[in-house]
């Protein structure tokens, strides 16, 4: 994988990205034998805290015999796409610790010590932790206060604490009310495109309906650059 940024050690954000995988998430496995390397597809099954990762053994009727590639103590590279949330390819290396054939054909591995990530988005995004008010445009009513995690001319990603009861729904039209350093309020209109969650936060991807020129002016006023 080219143009990857490697994180040495696992930060809280790295752990969040790993824990964003849900059972059934498609994954790509890079596996190596003494003579060659191959890529196969499988799916994530689960994990036991930070002790191990569990992966479904790839379908050998589709990929051929894998006994020379997947065995105890051999290493493999796992890749998956965090497309709905951050638009990233995430990769990590683990070591096989156990292979079960019954009741299901599963691979148990060590927990990753580091991850690599590569942004898939075509447009740059400014990273931020700005608090904004989210408004339901249909009823002109305040939904909640959320945190803008990143923002571009076309959209943004927000997070809302799980304890908050009034939250947006998919396809809902909303407005986000920003305030600059002088307390002046600015509005961006958009629609909710996707949602995910972890133990602490709900994450939503928003697509802006506001013209890009107006978004760019707002970002300049807020001193958020996406260059």
Short précis:
By secondary structure, the chain is mainly β.
Helix content, binned percent: under 10%
- Tell me the number of strands: 14
Provide the succession of SSEs: EHEEEHEEEEEEEEEEH
Tally of individual helices: 3
> Taking all residues together, what is the mean pLDDT?
86
Q: How much of the polypeptide forms β-strand, as a percent range?
A: over 45%
The CATH superfamily of the largest domain bears the name: Electron Transport, Fmn-binding Protein, Chain A
Name of the CATH first level of the largest domain: Mainly Beta
CATH architecture of the largest domain: Roll
Broad structural category: mainly beta
Broad shape: elongated
Set down the secondary structure blueprint.
Blueprint: E1 5-7, H1 12-19, E2 26-32, E3 37-48, E4 52-56, H2 60-63, E5 75-82, E6 88-100, E7 106-109, E8 115-119, E9 126-136, E10 141-151, E11 155-161, E12 173-179, E13 185-197, E14 201-208, H3 212-221
Antiparallel strand pairs: 1-8, 2-3, 2-5, 3-4, 4-7, 5-6, 6-7, 6-8, 9-10, 9-12, 10-11, 11-14, 12-13, 13-14
Describe the structure.
The strands form two sheets. Strands 2-3-4-7-6-5 form a six-stranded antiparallel beta barrel. A six-stranded antiparallel barrel has the order 9-10-11-14-13-12. The chain has helices at residues 12-19, 60-63, 212-221, and strands at residues 5-7, 26-32, 37-48, 52-56, 75-82, 88-100, 106-109, 115-119, 126-136, 141-151, 155-161, 173-179, 185-197, 201-208. The chain has two domains: 5-119, Electron Transport, Fmn-binding Protein, Chain A (Pnp Oxidase, Chain A); 126-221, predicted glycosyltransferase like domains (Thrombin, subunit H, Beta Barrel). It is mainly beta and 227 residues long. The protein has three helices and 14 strands. The protein is elongated.
């Amino acid at each position: 994988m080219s143009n990857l940024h490697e994180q040495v050690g696992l930060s809280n954000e790295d752990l969040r990205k790993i824990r964003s995988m849900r059972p059934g998430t498609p994954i790509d496995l890079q596996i190596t034998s003494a003579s060659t390397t191959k890529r196969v597809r499988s799916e994530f099954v689960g994990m036991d805290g930070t002790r191990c990762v569990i992966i479904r053994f790839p379908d050998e009727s589709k990929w051929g015999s894998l006994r020379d590639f997947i065995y105890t103590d051999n290493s493999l590279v796992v890749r998956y796409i965090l497309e709905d949330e951050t638009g990233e390819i995430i990769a990590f290396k683990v070591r096989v610790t156990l292979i079960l054939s019954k009741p299901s054909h599963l691979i148990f591995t060590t927990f990753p010590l580091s991850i690599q990530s590569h942004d898939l988005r075509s447009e740059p995004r400014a990273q931020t932790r700005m608090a904004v008010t989210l408004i339901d445009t249909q009823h002109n009513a305040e939904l909640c206060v959320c945190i803008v995690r990143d923002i571009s001319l076309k959209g943004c990603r927000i997070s809302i604490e799980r304890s908050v009861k009034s939250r947006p729904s998919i396809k809902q039209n909303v407005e986000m009310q920003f305030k600059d350093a002088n307390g002046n309020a600015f509005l961006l209109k958009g629609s909710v495109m996707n949602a995910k969650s972890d133990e602490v936060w709900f994450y939503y991807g928003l697509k802006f309906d506001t013209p890009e020129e107006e978004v760019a002016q707002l970002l300049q006023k807020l001193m958020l650059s996406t260059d």
